[in-house]
Amino acid sequence: MKQDVAETGPDPVDSRLGARLAELRAERGWSLGELAERSGVSRSTLSRAERAEISPTASLLNRLCSVYGRTMSQLLSEVEAEPALLVPAAEQQVWEDRASGFVRRSVSPPHTGLRGELVEGRLTAGADIGYDRPPVPGLEQHIWVLEGALDVTAQDVEHHLDTGDCLRLRVWGPTRFRCAGPDDVRYVLAVVLP
């Protein structure tokens, strides 16, 4: 049974993430209002995320990553200790967007001097996640479906991927990941900075 946040306090990852988001805004000298204008996210939502009163969704993090010029993995890696060269499965950071049915495992997190990273994504049947912009324009992505089926829309073109299929693309605009079901989908996302 899930405990109330007031009883247990905020999730430690959400607390570190909120603090990092506040640092990034402060580094630029932006008010919450300025960040709201740049990101299209309300001031109240930004404030609550920075104070770890809410667990940010994938869509919210994507908008902030776009404003700050980072991939989601880069942002999430900034709230962890320096990543080791070997990342045992038990130590790979897992982040969950419960609202959308999305689970993200940072298999090979960003590392200084490397441009690529690997992410394992899981979407529950019926999950539908849209990103209004890439975190970094021209970001290279390779999406390899391990189990299930995934529909990916990029540049207004929908691609249907079955188990074993791989989609390669550069992301310049909105994207959408959808698991129509009936089963969940598990896929690998290889991300390469331009």
TrEMBL record:
Recorded coiled-coil stretches: none
Signal sequence, start to end: none
SUPFAM superfamilies the record matches: lambda repressor-like DNA-binding domains, RmlC-like cupins
Gene3D superfamilies: Jelly Rolls, lambda repressor-like DNA-binding domains
Keywords: DNA-binding
Domain HTH cro/C1-type per the UniProt entry, residue ranges: 21-75
Membrane-spanning parts: none
Pfam families in UniProt: HTH_31
InterPro entries (alphabetical): Cro/C1-type_HTH, Lambda_DNA-bd_dom_sf, RmlC-like_jellyroll, RmlC_Cupin_sf, TransReg_Diox_bact_type
Highest taxon, organism lineage: Bacteria
Protein name (Swiss-Prot/TrEMBL): XRE family transcriptional regulator
